[in-house]
Hints:
Its EC number is 3.5.1.128. It comes from Xenopus laevis. By secondary structure, this protein is of the alpha/beta class. It has one domain (8-279): Carbon-nitrogen hydrolase (Nitrilase/N-carbamoyl-D-aminoacid amidohydrolase, 4-Layer Sandwich). It has helices spanning 20-36, 55-60, 68-80, 96-99, 169-177, 191-209, 258-267, 270-273, 276-279; strands at residues 8-14, 41-44, 83-92, 102-109, 115-120, 126-128, 134-136, 151-153, 156-160, 182-184, 212-215, 217-223, 226-229, 233-235, 241-244, 250-255. Strands 1, 2, 3, 4, 5, 12, 13 and 16 form an eight-stranded mixed sheet that branches. A six-stranded mixed sheet has the order 8-9-10-11-14-15, with helices on one face.
Amino acid sequence: MAGAHKPLIAVCQMTSTSDKEKNFATCSRLIREAAGRRACMVFLPEAFDYIGGSTEETLSLAESLHGDTIQRYTQLARECGLWLSLGGFHEKGPNWDTDQRISNSHVVVDNTGHIVSVYRKAHLFDVDLQNGVSLRESSSTLPGAELIRPITSPAGKIGLGVCYDLRFPEFSLALAQQGAELLTYPSAFTLTTGLAHWEVLLRARAIETQCYVVAAAQTDRHNEKRTSYGHAMVVDPWGLVIGQCQGGTGICYAEIDIPYMERVRRDMPVWRHRRTDLYGKISFNKPD
């Protein structure tokens, strides 16, 4: 493992298709490569398991958390001795037999192969873009009902999001207020929205929360209907991009320096300067 002072993380970029076996082979190769570099945690993008060509195909490939896909990743985490952020798993919903609806679930697995946390995506991507792309995530996906308190990992305290959650600053501020040191947004940004907003949103979330922001990403053409922007990225608490993938499948690495984060917060004390008497305080509504 990397030293406790500056743990090394690996942030992955890939092109998922409807071929689950091929996707697993890609992710397995990336995870083993990161283990060889002594990363303590690997971050996979949204839809690491698959991207279907239609709603019908997407639903037909969904599994439960106890299914074969997650079991293979828990075994891989245990074998490689590292943590995994499984950025957006197509999880069968609680009433699957009657409503055929899924959750977009961010699953974190520790180095012993145990599921540490599951966050189900709260903000669903329903948009009609000017280039003709129309996406309706809510047609098959249930919105998550709660935020998850930051989890303690070898990389630091991590606040979990997924893709479209990135556009809501209240979400990141709530997680930072609960002690997050890293915010992670595994994504499958469209080409149009990625070109316009991807980097600026990631950097903005880092600057306003003074957290590391970690964003694994889908890239390139998944099928005839869908292409993703890529540019998996790590941003530091000052807003500097310290790791980024270019084109194609690959990994970027970054060291997480918590003392540096603490210096940024001390030197630019925005948390102390907040005027909650004027505009209130972001609340965290998950019950204890």
